[in-house]
Amino acid sequence: MIELDRSRPIWPQVAAIIRERIDEGEYPAGERVPSVLALVTEFGVTQVTIRKAIAALRADHYIRTETGMGSYVLTAKERQDAGQVLGPIRQPSRARPRSMA
Q: 27 and 18 in contact (C-beta within 8 Å)?
């Protein structure tokens, strides 16, 4: 099991480790990232934590997820294209609704 700092949020630490593995080629471009269950076992965390880490990597254009198939590492070109087309994914605005006066 991987040692994590339990005094800080876990999912960003998991995302950083997976990102590092992608950058170092341990998870090569075009290849599938280990399954959620495999990562749960490896990191000793919940599925929710792994899913949050995967979502963060998807938002940063490191991976793409195909329903029922898993998550795959994007190539450098795919990351660049996704960043230009989509830009960073942000949380929706919490604007107040207009009054009906």
A: yes
Neighbours of 69 (CB within 10 A): 9
Q: Which of 85, 57, 81, 84 is nearest to 71 (CA)?
A: 57
Amino acid code (one letter) for 98: R
Distance between CA atoms of residues 10 and 56, nearest Å: 12
Q: Are strands 70-73 and 63-66 parallel, antiparallel or unpaired?
A: antiparallel
pLDDT tens-place string over residues 6-23: 999 999 999 999 999 999
How far is it between the farthest Cα atoms of the chain?
59
Q: How many CA atoms lie within 13 A of 67 on its CB side?
A: 0
